[in-house]
Design goal:
single chain, Rossmann fold, seven-stranded parallel sheet, five-stranded parallel sheet, 12 strands, 34% helix, elongated
Length: 326
């Protein structure tokens, strides 16, 4: 079988695939830019691709046109925003994704942000580098410990579950809003189910972990932000579209909460004139939540494991369009 891989992929798993299949492997890197839809179509057509493994490529109906040999598209990420799922299903193409591949990586980063913000570590480093460290720094930057404080999750998928395991070690109280899960589901992780309003009013750290859907787009707005405590922190390491940026920027500019951290933005990279860059007590990360070498190993193993099931005529564990099996 002919396999085309444009995603970053673990060498060991590439070699596993090469034992029984013909593999064309050229991952996207700094030196290999993302292909246009026309370029991607020609690549898959010329290589007679039967399996396509990608990460950030846009797989549209235009790309799929005439690819009669293509049997499966494997996406090395949880979100399928760049894949026309309906067009794949109509053509009998299975779509496999990798939910949770970066859950541990993002959870680690969020814990670091909680500690860094509440103990003013990021601000302390800026002061030191600017040569402003004086006798009063110790007193001005005294922060709070995580012990006994409340972490509040918007959504309770793979990342918050990893977070809950880590934050219990700090003896934090944990609450979460997720309309699709029961109290019992959350209790297994030591988390109390709460309403969306309670998450924002009770949380000392409110962190967002939901995909972009009709229900979640613009979910975090002025109404919810106004419920937050003045000494609370807000974190968005999910997707920019979930947050009304203008509302949260206004809230931060007026110092209505203690601070915030962002890993995602409506415009990336951030332009020099971005209002985010004018805010105090805000940590800005250049979309590094999943930037872990382990993530590549994780999604590579997940894809190869699911492809084995697919080739054996069994249902892959992470099949996004089960209707295609019919």
């Amino acid at each position: 079988m002919k396999i085309v891989i444009t995603a970053p992929f673990a060498a060991q798993q590439v070699e596993q695939l090469r034992k029984d299949h013909e593999v064309w492997f050229q991952p996207q890197t700094e030196d290999v830019p993302l292909r246009t839809q026309e370029q991607l179509h020609h690549l898959l057509l010329e290589e007679h691709a039967e399996i396509f493994i990608c990460e950030s490529d846009v797989v549209s109906a235009q790309v799929l046109e005439g690819l009669t040999a293509l049997k499966a598209v494997c996406v090395c990420r949880a979100g399928l925003n760049d894949v026309d799922l309906e067009a794949c299903t109509i053509r009998g193409i299975a779509v496999i994704n990798t939910p949770g591949r970066n859950a541990a990586a993002v959870a680690d980063m969020v814990v670091a942000l909680f500690i860094g913000m509440s103990r003013f570590l990021f601000e302390g480093e800026r002061i030191l580098r600017a040569g402003q460290w004086d006798e009063g720094t110790y007193y001005r930057l005294r922060g709070r410990e995580l012990y006994g404080r409340t972490a509040a999750f918007v959504g309770f998928g793979a990342i918050p579950r990893e977070l809950s395991r880590r934050l219990q070690a700090f003896d934090m109280r944990l609450i979460a809003y997720d309309p699709y899960l029961s109290e019992e589901d959350m209790a297994e992780y030591g988390v109390q189910k709460a309403s969306l309003e309670e998450v924002f009013s009770r949380g000392d750290f409110v962190t967002v972990h939901v995909p972009v859907t009709r229900e979640t787009k613009g979910l975090v707005n002025r109404r919810l932000l106004e419920r937050m405590k003045p000494d609370a922190y807000f974190v968005n390491a999910a997707r920019a579209d979930i947050v009304n940026e203008a509302d949260v920027i206004e809230h931060l500019r007026n110092h209505r909460i203690a601070g915030a951290a962002f890993d995602v933005y409506g415009q990336e990279p951030l332009p020099p004139e971005s209002p985010f860059l004018t805010l105090d007590h805000v940590v800005l990360i250049p979309h590094l939540g999943g930037a872990s070498l382990n993530v590549v190993d994780n999604h590579s193993r997940m894809v190869v494991s699911d492809l084995r099931l697919f080739w054996e005529g069994k249902r892959p564990l992470h099949l996004a369009n089960p209707g295609v099996l019919a």
